């Protein structure tokens, strides 16, 4: 929280936070919780527009909007009241903001709020992240997933990158943790480890530049990495295919 400043625009409804980011740059995030009632929702966007005058324009506006702008975002499908959606649209035009998830997924259906069957079973996509049009290129990996908290809302997330940052590659190879549950891999490495112990003892008696504890251990490590990489190369495509199939089935179910 060091260096973060915040301005409460609407008590318990809207806070503008300025967060130190890269070098001298700051990220301005407008966090909102819009009223649920239509007339109050409309008035909220109008008040927010007035309160933002003279302040830095937000790079992101996010949280619970209690409003949808697209029929795809409600089940059963329907638009919200025109006055409220127009008030939000007016604010978006003023701030040059777009719905990031919808921009990347123009035809997809996904919901962030669900009622129980007893409540009517309605679903809606009311939790959003609005971003500037210029930043759309630098925001990736949009997801809607469970938050891990006891709530009836899903979590909308994305990875935000600074366009001034240098390109960063994949980095060094790391062991996929699921490989640790592969019995064949662990048994092979354990057997290799037992052989390593014997070779280390031998290398201490017959030490040379090419046969010593350091070179023996390096051979063991390289072999273990090769075994893990080979197993991962076989397993990952199957896992990815399964995940892709589940995602497609989920989208088809939601769109039905």
Automatic annotation (TrEMBL):
InterPro entries named among the record's database cross-references: Endo/exonu/phosph_ase_sf
Superkingdom of origin: Eukaryota
SUPFAM superfamilies: DNase I-like
Protein name in the entry: Endonuclease/exonuclease/phosphatase domain-containing protein
Originating species: Hydnomerulius pinastri MD-312
């Amino acid at each position: 929280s060091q260096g973060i400043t915040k301005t409460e625009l609407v008590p318990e409804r809207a806070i503008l936070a300025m967060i130190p980011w890269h070098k001298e740059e700051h990220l301005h995030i407008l966090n909102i919780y819009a009223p649920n009632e239509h007339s109050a929702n409309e008035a909220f966007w109008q008040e927010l527009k007035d309160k933002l005058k003279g302040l830095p324009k937000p790079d992101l506006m996010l949280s619970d909007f209690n409003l949808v702008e697209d029929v795809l975002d409600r089940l059963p499908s329907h638009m919200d009241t025109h006055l409220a959606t127009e008030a939000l649209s007016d604010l978006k035009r003023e701030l040059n903001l777009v719905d990031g998830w919808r921009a990347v997924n123009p035809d997809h259906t996904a919901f962030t709020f669900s009622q129980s069957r007893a409540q009517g079973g309605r679903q809606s996509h009311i939790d959003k992240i609005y971003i500037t049009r210029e930043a759309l290129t630098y925001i990736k990996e949009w997801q809607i997933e469970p938050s891990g908290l006891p709530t009836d809302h899903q979590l909308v997330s994305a990875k935000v990158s600074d366009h001034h940052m240098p390109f960063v590659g994949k980095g060094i190879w790391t062991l996929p943790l699921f490989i640790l549950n592969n019995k064949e891999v662990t048994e092979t490495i354990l057997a290799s480890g037992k052989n390593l112990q014997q070779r280390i003892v031998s290398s201490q008696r017959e030490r040379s530049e090419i046969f010593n504890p350091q070179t023996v251990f390096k051979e063991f490590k390289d072999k273990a990495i090769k075994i893990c990489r080979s197993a991962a190369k076989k397993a990952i495509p199957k896992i990815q295919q399964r995940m892709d199939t589940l995602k497609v089935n989920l989208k088809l179910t939601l769109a039905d």
